[in-house]
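Hello,

I think I submitted the nicotinamide-adenine-dinucleotide job twice by accident. Can you confirm which output corresponds to this input? Input:
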Amino acid sequence: MASFDSEFSMTVGGCARFTTTTLPVFNPATRGVFAQVPDATRADLDDAIRAAHGAFRKWSSQPQGVRSAALVKIADVLEKNAEQFMALLTREQGKPRAGAEWEILGSVLWLREIARQSLPDEVIEDTVDRRVITRYSPLGVVGAITPWNFPVLLAVWKIAPALMTGNTIVVKPSPFTPLCTLKLGELCSEVLPPGVLSVVSGGDELGKWMTNHPAIDKIAFTGHTETGKHVMRSAAGTLKRVTLELGGNDPAIVLPDVDPRTVAPQLFWAAFQNNAQFCNATKRLYVHESVYSEVLQALVDYARGVVVGDGANPGTQLGPIQNQPQYVKVLEYFEDCRSHGYRFAVGGEVDPNAKGWFVPVTLVDNPPEYSRVVAEEPFGPILPVLKWRDEEEVIERANDSRYGLGASVWGSDLAAVQRIGARLEAGTVWLNEIHQYSPHQAFGGHKESGLGCENSLHGLIEYTNWHTLTLNKQSQFGRQATDYAA
Ligand code: NAD
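Support: Only one job matched these inputs. Its output is below.
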């Protein structure tokens, strides 16, 4: 098997696959190219899908225990190579060690926990006359398309439930962060039957080929809302099932009874974890006017102590923006704030000559609700801090978004925290905590933040068809039948 720092191959039908043309992979902390990956052709994709179909019949008919054991083996492989995965993840994604550890070890945990989930047949009726059961049967071949912010974890969120329910899968990582996923594919070929899991790399075009490919049965997609709409339109051609995990503009509401110095670090990380390149990052911070100045000052003080730099350096807390187009996009928000005269409470000055795509942690002091930095998803470390006075008004402002991924409420009055939280339109609402996820907790977006969900039995069901079997026990054709579904 190739090492972690030189050769990267696709995995197609259990074998390494290279291409004549390749795509460069950059280290965002240096802007330098440090690896090349295959650029899949349509023929490569067809081969991967053919192999997935070839493996499907046997894989889907295996006892559940076999598939569960296979997921545990993937977890073992990931854990055994965790140090190398973490270092590679930092290099290709930019995130510092703590974030890489959270993602890789989190992926291990997810695989092991989803290996314990199952969807037993449901007996709907069992009388002397009839027996009706609903089974959850696999869909066939799943195409997984992932983004660049959590490339390993978000691939595992798709691989684990797809394989557990008896599907086979073809994974396409983001062209900006393909390396760990390719490596995972290579390692999995040692523990999975050929064709069960293939990994192909390429640009956005490869994603399009997948979404309209007639032989893919479901697309599991994480990425931008606008891309999600393309995916859904394209998948409609063959009525593929889709799960869409899309963008967010998560509000956080801070009540008047918080202790500013205690809450500030939690709010800071709610917004800036993974350098704010996080679907669930707090992207609008609503602070009650009575504590606004103190909370803002506590955030500024905390932000001044945070170390931004190359994630490979010990002590770095926030890395660079992951890629050049995203860097350009984030800079537009800085420019928009500057041109409208919004005040930067901290940050705001980008050094264009920095070695990597670095942007300073920035807080914008009470910009208007309609400003771009409030209404859109910057996906970078620039956070608007906003004042509120009236509970009804802040709930309305928080919900006034086309997104509905996550939200949070912070305060000592637990009745108020819960009352407000219950009215926020989002898939996950955190109360006095943030970013707590679990393989057993449904995760997904309301409104334009997504369709369907990942994780939990609800997430597992998304990889299945309902399959209802009804038996008339009294029919003249089969009076002896008792339990054909055993
Ligand atoms: P993106 O939409 O640009 O790309 C995501 C993936 O889709 C990549 O693999 C890309 O190559 C592929 N792709 C691009 N165009 C395609 C097309 N027309 N058809 C098929 N595939 C196509 O997103 P990104 O910039 O990689 O990720 C950032 C976005 O992802 C943010 O909006 C963020 O909020 C969102 N996100 C959501 C979640 C969630 O769980 N809801 C998690 C992480 C990120």
